[in-house]
Structure formats: C-alpha cells, structure tokens
Amino acid sequence: MSVLAPARMRPADVVRVGGSGLRTRPLRAFLSALGIAIGIAAMIAVVGISSSSRAELDRQLATLGTNLLTVTPGQGLFGEDATLPNESVEMISRIGPVTQVAAIGTVSEVKVYRNDKIPSAQSGGISVRAAHLNLPDTVSATMANGTWLNLATARYPAAVLGADTAKRLGIGAAGINVQIYVGSKWFTVIGLLDKAPLAPELDSAVLVGWQAAETYLGFDGHPTTVYARTDDSQVEAVRNVLAQTANPKAPNEVKVSRPSDALAARQATDRAFTGLLLGLGAVALLVGGVGVANTMVISVLERRSEIGLRRSLGATRGQIRTQFLAEALLLSALGGAGGVGLGVIVTGVYSTTQQWPTIVPAWASTGGIAATLVIGAIAGLYPAIRAARLAPTEALATT
Description:
11 strands; 2 domains; 11-stranded mixed β-sheet; elongated; alpha+beta
C-alpha cells in the first residue's frame, strides 16, 4: 500500500491562503498594517525631506558659487579690536585670480528709526553700513524692489534696506521712496534687498553709499568686511595670501573665511539630525512589528480548530508554517507599501510649501519595503512555528 505524498503549495496558493486569513479579520489586519505604515512613512518622510533640503542647498551653492572669500578684522596682540587698512580693498584687487572685490564698512554709534518720534533706546538692532557700488554682484545679492546705489545716489542720503531690516521697520515690498531716520538725518529708501545667503550681515543692515556715510554719518572710511570673488580653481591659493595682502604689517590681525563653508556646515548638521530622526522612525517601525507579532499570535490561538482540521486533512507542518508566515509577510508588505506612499506624499507636500525640489531616494523606498518584509518575517516566525507544532488531535480537542 503506497502513501500519497502531501500536495505542494504553489506560490499563488500560499498568497491566496495567507490573504484569506487577513480577510477574515479586516479591522485587526488594518490596525496592524497601520502600525507598520506609520513607521515606514516616518522614515521615508525624514529621508525625503532631508534629501529635498540638501538638494535645495546644493542648488543654492551652485547658483551663488563657492568662490567667495571674506576678509574681516580680527584682534590685536593684546585683544583689542583690529581694523583693516583703507587701501586693503585696492590691494586685494591686485591679486591675479581675484575677479571682483567689494566692501562694507560699519558706521559706529549710528542708530536707525522709522521716524524721529521713536525713543532713542529702541534701536531694533539695525546696523548702518557703508557699501561699495558693486556689492550685490560680488555677493550674489538681488533686489526685491527698487534699485541699488549708483554713482549719483551714493553721494546723497539714500539707503537700501536688508530683508530683515525692512520687516523690523514695517516697510513692505512697496515701501520705496519712504524716509527713515538714520542718526540725526533723514534718508530716503530707494531699494529693498532679498535675503543674502552668502552675506547674512546685510539682511539686518541699512546700506548707504560710502561717500554719503562719510559726509552725513561721520564714517571713518575703514572697511569692516571685504568680499573677494576668485577663479574657482584658485580659491585656496588666494585664501592663503589674503591676510598678508589685506594687512601686510599685521596679517595675524586678519580673518579670512568662505561663507559657503557655513552652508556646507549646515548641510552636515542636517545629516546628523536626519540620523536622529531615522532612529525615531526605526523605533516606530519596531512598534509596528510588535503589533504584527501580537496579531499573528492571537490569530494562532483563535484558529486552533482550523489548524487542527487542516492537519487532519493532510496539511504538513511546513504548509501550516508557510501559511502563517505568508500572512505576516502580506500584512507587513501592505503596511510597507502604504507607508512608502504616505511618506512620499508628506515629502511632496512639505517640499512644495518650502519651494524645494521633491526628492525621495529610490534606496529609501526599496529599503522601506525590505525593512517591512524583514520585520514581518521576524514577527511572524514564532506564531508560524507555534501553529505548525500543534498536533491535529490537540487542536481539534480545544474546539
């Protein structure tokens, strides 16, 4: 008498049997899949938003350029504030690879007010700076409204406001030709600047012509920040000689920096912050995995009679184990797919509101699905083994 070998389950049969188990308890399956989805969505959104932010930052760097160097005075031998020589701008312009040079000079002890009725103690933290005419081109600054200083207006009490200064003074985008009180003199606003990423000190400043600052505000003529554009291939070479060129007598009293380094540092900070948020997303994913495991364990306990009946009809332990493992994988895959979709939507919405490019790396989506399958396999392994170990008589006796 020959014994028939148990029928083998094809992949389609495994999926069908596993799906039938989920369909019988839709609410429980949905809640378990939701736990997985939340974890994956959190991870995808973190990676996507971070990648979109870095792409925008890279775009800004590519647009603004990384070949801008700034020269500022440091401190003297005994800790006193140093100054740059008046001729430092002209000397820096003689360096061969330098293509553009511009400077600003801080006008000390001069405060800015919207009108002359405001108490003198309420300065608002606004600085006054004399500016060269080629400053916007050198630092890649753009006008939000109005015009920049020219040969004519630089000699008279005319001013251009930084982006933050305009807000503090309550001057909107259309606030051209209004007057502000600078020191003890009325100045006419002729232009408003956009934010200047490579020269953030301009955002909170009132910018006036060099000659006007000397004539009306008692400016001493010393530049406090010199901006130099160089050939891209010669940035480090120029950087090494800028201090000696700007102040040959005391190069140790000169600071040289590259504003784009600050943007790159911000990018590195974003990466570290992303790592932290990914850790939180992983915790959420782990919680979702525990939910899947809990669902599968309860499912085994509730379906003991089904397991016993299938075993008595010839199903092997391996087939029972495969059935419950397939249910766990399907449950996790559904949650993973939903989480990836939700994460992409969140990334797209947030990036659009920030006017960033929407970028979700392919590795994040595929990795998210892979992570859910691994979590599902681990979460469903114990319940599957437990179901397979039930003897037919034991399972049927408990019904």
